[in-house]
Each structure stands twice: as structure tokens, then as C-alpha cells.
Amino acid sequence: MDAPARSDRSDLTFLYGQSVPRCTHDIDKRFDEYQTLQYMSGGRVDLRIDGELHRLAGSWFWSGFPGPRIAFRCSPGCASWRHRFIAFRGPLVGRWMADGLFPVLPQRPPRGRDFGRRFDELLALLSRTDRWGHRRAIHLIEGILIELAEARVQSNQPDGVTWLAKAIDQLNDRARAEVDSDYSSIAASVGMAESTFRRRFRAATGVPPHVYVLQCRANAARQLLTETDMPVKLIARQLGYQDVFFFTRQFRKFTGVPPALYRKSRHG
Q1: Beta strands 35-49 and 52-64: pairing type?
Q2: H helix or E strand, kind and range, residue 3
Q3: Which of 62, 73, 96, 165 is deepest in the core (most CB within 10 A)?
Q4: With contact defined as beta carbons under 8 Å apart, do 54 and 106 qualify?
Q5: pTM
Q6: Which domain holds residue 261?
Q7: What 3-state DSSP class applies to 31?
Q8: Domains contained in the chain, number
């Protein structure tokens, strides 16, 4: 079952999706300017993220996202796997990242929940042309991401307070305060050496800490460009950039378009 491409000017644009009962895809690429949520519910897959091998069997979620090189294919001796996926992009992804919902590194789904049925419902919603179908699709995919994030927290520490949540709170504060992050002090606050913190943060989120901060600032810039008439130069300064041209390059790197064009596309 294929879901058609779809364009929408909301905070999330769904690009395409597919349900493949006997998947034999052989993917090896860098994801540029869009993200995916992948779900397998049977078979065996060899997944590599920046060369790190994950051997998956049964039911698993994972993401495709800009940054690392991501490759996946049938494991040796396996003819196919049961695969569903959806591709999307938009400012909402930045907020998901700030909340620790995305990306999803290889993760088993919580037990006792029919994610296959829910994913099929999500794909079916993409064929609708009304705004309610689109809003329901956003609600459904965000619900899946919340459940996965909640399961990660519960598996790491019973009281729900994790080193990652604490680190993300501090990085978010520094991004909003327009100051450079002191990664050594953040690492110390979560009981790690800086090198260990950087390695574990990237393993958990898919991006290094400094890239995460830049993503947060790009998301803040999107909001200011959409919700205010503030000049681009002033937005750059408010976000800690002294050079508006450097800010423009950074913004384009994360969104695919320069700030002025992004504002024009949002305002019509």
C-alpha cells in the first residue's frame, strides 16, 4: 500500500509513505532535508548508522534523518521483511527534537500495542485531502513518538529522570540564552567525562550536542520568521549570530532555504 505525496503549509509536511509486506529494499544514503520513521514487524534487517551495525529481528522502529549515513537491507539468509515507513519534514520536527521525541534510534516497540494497525491508519490518512485528515495524521505520528520516548525513559530509569533529559534541558536553556554551550560543565552535571557525554549524546539523538543547539536556534528562527515582521538581521542577532550571512548559511543548512524565502513561503 502506497500513500501519495502530499504538500501542506502546516508545521509538518508528509512527503510519502508505504507499507511493504515483503520488503527487499537496499538503502544506503544520507537523508537530506527530510526525515523518516521506519517500522519493521517481521523478518531480519541489518541497519547501519554511520557504520555502526544493528542486527534487527522481529519488531523495531528507527529513523532516517539528516546527518549520519544510514543503510539497511535484509540480513544474510533472510529473503524479506515486513516494512512500513513515512517521510516528512517541517518545523514541527525541530520541536520534536527539542522534546527528545526524535530521532528514534533502533528501538523495540512497547509490548501489547498494535503499531502495525496504527501505522496503516497513518498511511491511510495521507490519501485524504481535507485538513482534518492531515491534522489527525500529525496527531497519530506524534502519539507514536511520545509512546516510544516514554518507553525509553522508563527503561533507562524508573523515576523518569534521565541524563539525556537533563542535558537537553541545559542545551535548550543555552540555545535560548544566545550563549555558547559549556559542554564540559553539562557533562559534569550528568556525571560523565566530556568525551563520554558527546559520544552518548550522539548515540541517543543522532547528532552531536553542538548540532542539536544549532537545530534549536534554527527552530527558534522559523518561529520568529513566521510569527513576527522582525528583520532577518535582528533575528540573527537575537539568536546570537553577529554575522547575518553566517546565520543565513546555517539556517539554509537546516531548512533547505534562506530565511527570506522561508518567510515568504509561510506568508504566501
Answers
A1: antiparallel
A2: strand 2-3
A3: 62
A4: yes
A5: 0.65
A6: 163-267
A7: coil
A8: 2
